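Closing statement on the LTNE7NMQ sub-project.
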Amino acid sequence: MVRQNADKILDVTGCKLTVKTALVRNLDNYTKYADETSLTTDFDEILNDDEIKIVVELMGGIHPAKEYITTLLKNHKNVVTANKDLIASYGPELMAVAHENHCDLMFEASVAGGIPILRTIANSFTADKVTEVKGIVNGTTNYILTQMSQRGWSYHQALAQAQQLGFAESDPTNDVTGKDAAYKMIILSQFAFGTQLDIKDIAVEGIDRLNDADVQQAASFGYVIKLLGIAKLFNNGVFVEVGPVLIPRDHPLATINNEFNAVMVTAQAVGDTLFYGRGAGGLPTANSVLSDITTVTKNIILGTNGNLFNNYQQPYIPAKLADIKYPYYLSLTLPDVPGQMLKLTQMMTDVNASFREITQTKDGKIAHIAIITHRMSKEQLQTLLTKVDNDQSINLSAAYKVMG
Ligand SMILES: NC(=O)C1=CN([C@@H]2O[C@H](COP(=O)(O)OP(=O)(O)OC[C@H]3O[C@@H](n4cnc5c(N)ncnc54)[C@H](OP(=O)(O)O)[C@@H]3O)[C@@H](O)[C@H]2O)C=CC1
Ligand SMILES: N[C@@H](CC=O)C(=O)O
């Protein structure tokens, strides 16, 4: 992209960009690039090169990326990164180092790949109050769910293909367990609400324990299951969660397939807005990296480096469990003997919850029950789940939020 769009970049920024040096671990693996850029295994070669104004970190992981970026910023190099693990965990610390050293630290590609969502929230929602950001922010899991439901692929076949296509992280554990989406939701919350959450503050569930039976059951209720990140204000308290969610079939988020991502930002004045695009893959991600690089370049020309990518900072006040309300999908099995359903109904009544839809199928002496509840608070849900957990005969396999 730097080469192909060199003229346009020159027109817009006033600079010709060149990829001068690439840091690699093993020179032998990268000889095919040796003609177009200088390769090194020595980080100091980049650090001490005064001609290099912007360093792009795309190695991933926390270490040594954090140490490299800190050293670079302290040595007045601007940094662009796509590293959500690092920014979610140490973003404010690194941004402070950038600011102190009058450097830019930008990370548009860290959330939703090719969708320019961070700069949009930072610039275009400044004067509005964002009340919710929710969406599909992991391309790998959305690709897996799509291939499983549309092509009948197995989970492992779909994951292997997502790795092959370059969507998955080098270790895909964070993708499938929801941790990658959680990191992205932490960054989105920084921009939307100004708050810095820790991954420990967030309930995170992935698709690795999702049952095909629940996908089918959700479909017969009229829903599609997607791995959704939700960051929402309830009475001004912040609630962030990642997990499988039942989305009504006709909702825009239900139609997002493959590696595509979509982020819905809701704000008081503007209402709902939806941003859609490829959330993973080399070129879409490169577009976001290049948008950061060209922004930093313009700042270098204007002498305006050192402004924070996100200026909004607020204390983190968690939402109260009693305020967080959703309908829930519950999937349970219990012995098909008289009195069991009555017991379950009593447990629901005890926590003031009620059924919106319920279906029962039988498999020998076991009854499978799928329920959609009316809206209930997280506090009610937790009490109900504890009651179910304490009952030896009832086995709960899924408790997912329902949208709408
Ligand atoms: N893939 C995607 O769609 C997206 C990725 N991202 C983020 O972008 C970053 C890169 O992702 P991706 O390209 O998929 O990851 P890969 O694992 O495919 O590539 C990482 C590269 O970094 C190199 N590397 C790792 N550690 C070092 C080191 N210590 N020194 C030098 N080189 C190193 C690896 O080299 P080697 O050949 O030696 O292994 C490899 O070439 C990650 O932070 C990821 O989360 C963000 C948005 C989308
Ligand atoms: N592994 C990530 C890549 C982009 O962030 C994903 O699948 O979304």
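The mean pLDDT is 97. With this model delivered, the sub-project is considered complete and its resources will be redirected to Aim 3.
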